[in-house]
Amino acid sequence: MALIHRELVEERGWVSEDDFLHALNFCHFLPGPEAQQLATWVGWRLHEWRGGLAAGLLFVIPGAIIILGLSMLYAVAANLDWFEALFVGVKAAVLAIVLQALIRIAGRALNTHFKQALAIAAFAALFPFDLPFPVVILVAGGLGLAIARVQP
Question: Helices 81-109 and 34-77, interaxial angle, to 10°?
């Protein structure tokens, strides 16, 4: 997400910061990967249905080819010690990239104390208390609507 944001908002200026965050929030409600949905939305926004189709396909196809190649490589070399160590290093790198993206997007989206508190409460409700995701979304949405009526 951080890479998409930097490319589309900061460098190219194809969408505004507010539009990006609104689209990202909407994509969180949809099932499936947010990055692919966001890329499809940007394609649609810029070039209607043809742009959305092209962006969606061009987002998925390279990753699918890479995953196919890596899975074939893993099937051949799965029992080699050096190969397992390589994949442990890749896992650590992916975790670092995900954490960096989380910090960048959260820094932009959680720009008020209420939003920060709501994000922490939602995290606590989902993980330590294991509440169902739809319940957390409905409660967070209701709180957001109530606060927006009091202080837009």
Answer: 170
